Amino acid sequence: MRRLGVALAVLLVLATAPSAGAVDREWLADRIAAGDDESVAHLAALDGIAAANGGNRATGTPGYDASVRYFTDQLRAAGYQVTYQDVPYHGFRADVERLTAPDGSAVRILMSQYAPSTPEGGITAPLFALGAADDATPGCEAADFPPDVRGAVALVRTGGCTTPDKARAAGAAGAAALVLHDVSPAPWAVLRLRAPDSAIPVGHVTQLVAEELAGQAGRPVTVDLRGHDEYGTTVNVFAETAGGAADNVVMVGAHLDSAPEGPGVNDNGSSAAAVLQAALRLAPYQQVVPNKVRFAFWGAEELINVGSHHYVDSLTPEEIRDIALYLNFEMLASGNYAHFVMDGDDSEHPDTGGPGAPPGSGAVEGVMTQGYRVQHAPVLSADFATMPSDSEAFIAAGVPSGGAHGGIRGIKTPEEAAIFGGTAGQFYDPCYHQPCDDLAHINRDAMRQSAGAVAWAVGRFAVYAADVRAESGR
User: Is the Cβ–Cβ distance between 275 and 321 less than 8 Å?
Assistant: First the structure.
């Protein structure tokens, strides 16, 4: 019966869609963006998957495999053929994470990825807390550390330079280990960062823990951090329309894996759910769309965009030229959200001076912005640097790119709070890479508006992407 229903829907579309000579570029966008929102139901499914699989859906875990099965079942039931691409990855798994404070209490600590391990049983040494003036962030150079740090466990705040920079500086100054902490509006949160090539063990604690430890400086602490590199193979998941021009592909993607520290309902279940909803709504029209639409659910993004880079690297130059544009989405349901559309006129990366948005991305931005306006939702423009994600591989390949995010690791400004509501001075998503990144902490209005905007943009580009081609010159 399902196949008969899809066939009847296709016949109805053929009878009612505008003719080839018509100018209406938005007829399909308006159809698939309207109606009840189903995206939260998909988020509830991902939340349940994480709860049943150790609290996360990270690459290389049963939670990710179950997420792949859920998306596969949804797409196949809608009439898509689902394909997979194997993706080799190099990850890191922490085996032991212990910090015993001078007062004997055990406090939570996360081991930096790819940092060296302590000996079994850990390192016991005096705690040295590196202070900072209000206008300075120390620990980026070995000269920032006094001689007292030699042989000690150094407690240093983040900022001013990267985690590897801090690790190298502390190691060069003679520290036995490094413990880092943020100073942030979420003093109870802790992020696991990376410290490749560090000569000493590195861990991360919350600001609250760091403040308690600093009061016990000079006394011995024990840091026991042990982990190992992990090599494996995960998958990217693809579904594409049966119809549409194969040399004019509209790609739409979001990563499906979570960070190991949480369920990943906002990061990035929210975006994967929005893309899935767009795919399901487009399914009855997939035989008649002028442009082929390819949906991608990336693996190993949390290992720094591994799945998307692997995919783009696997394409021939001709296959890359066949991609008219790429849309990418991140964290669309942040609890303290703002809607950001990626700036298609960002011709230079503001941090590196490298390439920003390729030509054609301005047209992508215009359509994505209109998608939010159709939802009666305000929207702001943001540089691609605010969304370091799977769009990077496509940008590097010269593919016009765009998309949206709901606020990532940033702090909401008073101006943004006046537009979107919420709380100025707080993170867009206080649960970023935390155990609380679950269904209870998303913003459902943001999810509904963004899912509608994603579907609208997909429907528009499925019918018409010639403006992107013309602007890009590809």
Answer: no
Q: Are strands 220-240 and 82-100 parallel, antiparallel or unpaired?
A: antiparallel
Structure tokens at 232: 């494996």
136-174 per-position pLDDT tens digit: 778 999 999 999 999 999 999 999 999 999 999 999 999
Predicted TM-score (pTM) of this structure: 0.93
Residue found under tokens 């969304």: 387
Q: Which amino acid is at 64?
A: Y
The question of whether 301 is a catalytic residue gets the answer: yes
Q: Collect all residues with Cβ–Cβ distance below 8 Å to 21 and sequence separation of at least 6.
A: none
Which candidate, 382, 260, 284, places its Cα nearest to that of 328? 382
- For 454, residues 6+ apart whose C-beta sits below 8 A from its C-beta are 252, 274, 275, 277, 278, 327, 329, 332, 371, 404
Tokens representing residue 371 in the block: 């998608």
Does residue 338 sit in the same domain as residue 455? yes
State the Cα torsion 205-206-208-209 to the nearest 10°: -20
Q: Residue 22 sits in which domain range?
A: 2-80+241-472
Rounded CA separation 225/122 (Å): 7
Please write the tens of the pLDDT for every residue from 450-474: 999 999 999 999 999 999 999 999 9
For residue 414, what are the CA distances in angstroms to 148, 411, 443?
42, 10, 19
Last residue of a domain, one of 229, 264, 280: 229
Catalytic residue (choose from 26, 240, 301, 365)? 301
pLDDT in tens, 44-70: 999 999 999 999 999 999 999 999 999
- Take residue 125 and report the two structure tokens written for it: 């040494």
Residues 18 and 137 in one domain: no
Percentage of the chain lying above the pLDDT 70 cut: 92
- The alpha-carbon radius of gyration of the chain (Å, integer) is 24
66 and 128 part of one domain: no
pLDDT tens, residue by residue, 110-136:
999 999 999 999 999 999 999 876 557
Rounded average pLDDT over 414-432: 98
Q: Are 307 and 87 in contact (CB under 8 A)?
A: yes
Residue 383, domain member (yes or no): yes
